[in-house]
Amino acid sequence: MLWRCVACGAFYEKHLLVCTSCWRDGQIAPCGHRQPANIDLVPATTDARALARMGWRILEHPGVYETLVLGLGALVLVSGPPGAGKSSWACRLLDAIPGPVVLVAAEEGLAPSLAARLSRCRVKRQDFGVIARASVDAVVEFAIARKAVAVAIDSVQEAAWSANELRHLLAVVPSLDLLIGVQQVTKDGQPAGLMGLQHESDVQVVVEDMQWGLKKSRYQDLANVGGEVLPQTDLPLAPIEREDLHVVA
Fold first, then answer.
1. Are 71 and 11 part of one and the same domain?
2. Per residue in 216-228, pLDDT tens?
3. What is the extent of the structural domain holding 26?
4. CA–CA distance, 247 with 98 (Å, rounded to integer)
5. Which of 39, 148, 169, 241 has the fewest CB neighbours in a 10 Å radius?
6. Which ranges in the chain belong to alpha helices (H)?
7. How close are the terminal C-alpha atoms of the chain, in Å?
8. Taking a C-beta distance cutoff of 8 angstroms, is the pair 4, 17 a contact?
């Protein structure tokens, strides 16, 4: 069982009387695990040629975060304090990927705050699908039906998906080339949850005060990579028409 401090968000593998992150007592509570899914029993299979392509193919995301290099099949984690811009960073990168994409709004659902964020990020593509607070199997079914090439989960803690489960999702959705996980942080600014997410990820991005930087990458050096989450432009914000987004509650 996983335990979580309700005061600062720190995660633990066992119950503690005092949180060692924020030092408050009586705040550690059981953290919900996701329900078993059918895809848990689906083996991840591939071939040597497909694995070789993962070693050299670069995933294009034209016009957005151009200093960031992403490989085929990358698992990207983006973390930061509340309101720093990590969800906006994930949405903007997702919108830059050519082809159908899916946002899993596990934390806020289909709320006005999500509509406002998509408007700020100028997201209005019809093939930008949104699914809210769905089971793992529902997400997989939705992604396969839309032939999604990229999926973002906001947040991985709220969805209660482990690092191995995120990697498995990349394997069982045939069209999927990129998985972005938005990660909450503790009160002291460290990524919340067990260290498995950090170890398993291929790229780690840190966002603070609407500025992003690179903390880890299997594809490039960390120096001189980063910038504004939402660069200033002279273009007016485009309102989102209701029929432009395909949503599933």
1. no
2. 999 999 999 999 9
3. 1-32
4. 19
5. 241
6. 48-56, 86-96, 112-120, 136-145, 156-159, 163-172, 196-200
7. 28
8. no
Residues 7 and 56 in one domain: no
Tens of pLDDT, residues 38-91: 777 778 788 888 878 777 789 999 999 999 999 999 999 999 988 899 999 999
Question: Tokens 């460290």 sit at which residue?
Answer: 190
- DSSP reduced 3-state for 154: strand
Q: Are residues 2 and 63 located together in one domain of the fold?
A: no
In which residue are the tokens 């059981």 written? 30
Q: Looking at the structure, do residues 167 and 198 belong to the same domain, yes or no?
A: yes
- Domains held by the chain: number: 2
Do 17 and 49 belong together in one domain?
A: no
- Assess whether 236 and 162 both reside in one domain: yes
3-class state of residue 8 by DSSP: coil
CA distance 58 to 100: 18
DSSP-H helix ranges across 7-155: 48-56, 86-96, 112-120, 136-145
In terms of domains, do 55 and 2 share one?
A: no
